[in-house]
């Protein structure tokens, strides 16, 4: 599908992971994340094993580590507060490099950081091996409400169109000597946002008209049916199943 | 089908919008099978209103619309929308699916077609407009002319009785304009073309009708209408600078 034009999270390839049907991958990633989150935080070795598992998946999918690590940066703003936990949490304290840190806080920070990173890494791998379009087909197959799938699919289709419209409005503003430099200009920006909303709304009406003209009656026709064989299901679910074994060991050991 | 049944038969069509603005005052228009007719008229003449009546998006006024003998009405709306293929002015409104192939498949799939039959229909429609190799592309990565051609394909895939084009030449560069003209000429389908582009009407349509203030005020050979200076002036229709309809040989089909 549209090689070279795909979303930048996607990495074109023909690996066994790329070839798996989208809904099996979605189910596998979801199950993996659930397993990781339910692992006790004290079992540090378990998280190491999870990371190794994801490393194996990345290797099979031929996703280079640099690509993966760079996209992991997205989690930085979300885990930033985890760094604060050791300083603000209550309870028993230890001295590390002259800083007095809370033991509870340290465990909390580790918990958020490890589980968050593993979850984001799994999602980045999913996005790198599955096209947006396929993800939608997968969600549809997993019986997500069709209305939600339709909304997501229109977002993908019209995201660029609306960004383009926004860019043109910005150029038009600037061509008439406007530059947003302070709070006094927020009014103008707010009006532009309002105009953009109305334009998009009207486009929505025209699109709806075009859909009706081609026989739309409330439901999207199924054009591509995605199916998975037993073998494809078992190779996709190998990841969460192995993780589950690790998790159970983590609870018992 | 009986060869004397016209593709389109509009009789006494009148319509007022809910806000009281009356757009159509008794339109009569008959288009035979295989004809190519241009619908000319100044802005605000009711052209779009008329078009939206042809497939039953707007209803409720006086008069009747028949498509290949079938009256437009609630009971067979699906069949009417299959028979009347409207190509809207902005291809971004018309192409709402994530890939070209899915967009072209939308109409036939909504009518219940699937599998290899659907694939064959999509391929044929894309070949008719010369866009077969772009099937897997997302529409927003195509040039404007290509998008317009795909928009035509989305409608051709429904094998319509009549193709209705709203301003088909707008925003096209001269090469795309000529390519679209070649495609339209090669199709064996009745065409109603709404346009301001008078040379384009002359090039493609042997017959033209002028819609002015909600009624058909002239109906005849395109070359004759365009050569009637008084008629043209009376309806705010102007030829481009230096263009003389008498100096070109119009197709008579």
Helix-and-strand structural type of chain A: mainly alpha
Number of strands of chain A: 2
Helicity range of the residues of chain B?
25-40%
Number of domains of chain A: 2
In the sheet with the most strands of chain B, the strands line up as 6-7-8-3-9-10
- CA radius of gyration of chain A is 23 Å
Residue ranges of chain B: pLDDT <50 for 5 or more in a row? none
Top keywords for this entry?
heterodimer; A: 253 residues; mainly alpha; 2 domains; 10 helices; B: 253 residues; alpha/beta; Rossmann fold; four-stranded antiparallel β-sheet; 10 strands; 35% helix; globular; cell membrane (chain B); nucleotide-binding (chain B); transport (chain B); translocase (chain B); ATP-binding (chain B)
What's this model, at a glance?
Chain B: It is found in: Cell membrane. The complex is a heterodimer of chains A (253) and B (253). Chain A has helices spanning 16-19, 22-37, 44-60, 65-72, 76-88, 103-129, 132-141, 146-175, 186-213, 230-252; strands at 93-96, 99-102.
What does this structure look like?
The complex is a heterodimer of chains A (253) and B (253). Chain A is mainly alpha-helical and 253 residues long. Chain A has two domains: 151 residues, no CATH class; 69 residues. Chain A contains ten helices and two strands; from the N terminus they run αααααββααααα. Chain A has a two-stranded antiparallel ribbon. In chain A, a hairpin with a 2-residue loop joins strand 1 and strand 2. In chain A, helix 2 runs antiparallel to helix 6, helix 4 packs across helix 6 and helix 7 packs antiparallel against helix 8. Chain A is flat and about 65 Å long. With 253 residues, chain B is α/β, with parallel strands linked by helices. Chain B has one domain: P-loop containing nucleotide triphosphate hydrolases (Rossmann fold). Chain B is built from ten helices and ten strands. In chain B, the strands form two sheets. Chain B has a six-stranded mixed beta sheet with strand order 6-7-8-3-9-10, sandwiched between helices. In chain B, helix 7 links the parallel strand 7 and strand 8. In chain B, helix 4 packs across helix 5 and helix 5 crosses helix 6. The mean pLDDT of chain B is 91.
């Amino acid at each position: 599908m549209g090689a070279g034009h795909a979303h930048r999270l996607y990495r074109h390839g023909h690996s066994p992971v790329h070839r798996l049907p989208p809904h099996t991958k979605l189910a596998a990633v979801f199950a993996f994340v659930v397993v990781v989150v339910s692992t006790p935080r004290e079992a540090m070795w378990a998280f190491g094993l999870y990371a190794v598992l994801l490393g194996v998946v990345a290797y099979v999918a031929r996703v280079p580590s640099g690509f993966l690590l760079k996209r992991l940066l997205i989690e930085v703003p979300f885990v930033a507060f985890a760094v604060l936990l050791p300083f603000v949490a209550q309870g028993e304290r230890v001295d590390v490099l002259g800083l007095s840190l809370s033991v509870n806080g340290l465990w909390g920070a580790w918990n958020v950081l490890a589980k968050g990173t593993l979850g984001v890494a799994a999602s980045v791998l999913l996005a790198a091996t599955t096209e947006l379009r396929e993800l939608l087909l997968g969600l549809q197959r997993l019986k997500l409400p069709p209305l939600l799938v339709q909304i997501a699919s229109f977002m993908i289709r019209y995201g660029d169109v609306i960004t383009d419209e926004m860019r043109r409005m910005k150029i038009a503003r600037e061509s008439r000597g406007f530059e947003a430099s302070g709070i006094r200009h927020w009014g103008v920006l707010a009006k532009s946002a309002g105009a953009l909303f109305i334009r998009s709304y009207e486009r929505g009406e025209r699109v709806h008209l075009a859909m009706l003209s081609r026989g739309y009656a409330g439901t999207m026709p199924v054009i591509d049916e995605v199916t998975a064989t037993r073998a494809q299901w078992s190779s996709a679910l190998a990841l969460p199943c192995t993780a589950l074994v690790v998790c159970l060991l983590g609870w018992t050991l | 089908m009986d060869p004397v049944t016209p593709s389109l038969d509009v009789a006494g069509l009148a319509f007022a919008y809910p806000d009281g603005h009356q757009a159509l005052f008794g339109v009569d228009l008959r288009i035979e099978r295989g004809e190519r007719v241009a619908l000319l008229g100044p802005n605000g003449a009711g052209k779009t209103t008329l078009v939206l009546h042809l497939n039953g998006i707007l209803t409720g006024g006086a008069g009747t619309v028949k498509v290949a003998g079938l009256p437009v009405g609630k009971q067979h709306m699906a069949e009417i929308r299959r028979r009347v293929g409207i190509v809207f002015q902005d291809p971004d409104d018309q192409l709402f699916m994530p890939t070209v192939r899915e967009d072209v498949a939308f109409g036939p799939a909504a009518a219940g077609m699937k599998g290899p039959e659907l694939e064959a229909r999509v391929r044929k429609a894309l070949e008719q407009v010369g866009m077969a190799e772009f099937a897997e592309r997302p529409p927003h990565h195509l040039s404007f002319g290509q998008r317009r051609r795909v928009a035509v394909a989305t409608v051709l895939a429904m094998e319509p009785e009549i193709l209705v084009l709203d301003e088909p030449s707008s925003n096209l560069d001269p090469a795309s304009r000529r390519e679209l003209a070649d495609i339209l000429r090669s199709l064996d389908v009745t065409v109603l073309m709404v346009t301001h582009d008078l040379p384009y009407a002359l090039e493609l349509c042997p017959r033209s009708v002028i819609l002015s203030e909600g009624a058909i005020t002239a109906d005849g050979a395109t070359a004759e209408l365009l050569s009637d200076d008084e008629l043209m002036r009376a309806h705010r229709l102007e030829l481009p600078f230096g263009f003389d309809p008498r100096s070109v040989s119009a197709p008579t089909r």
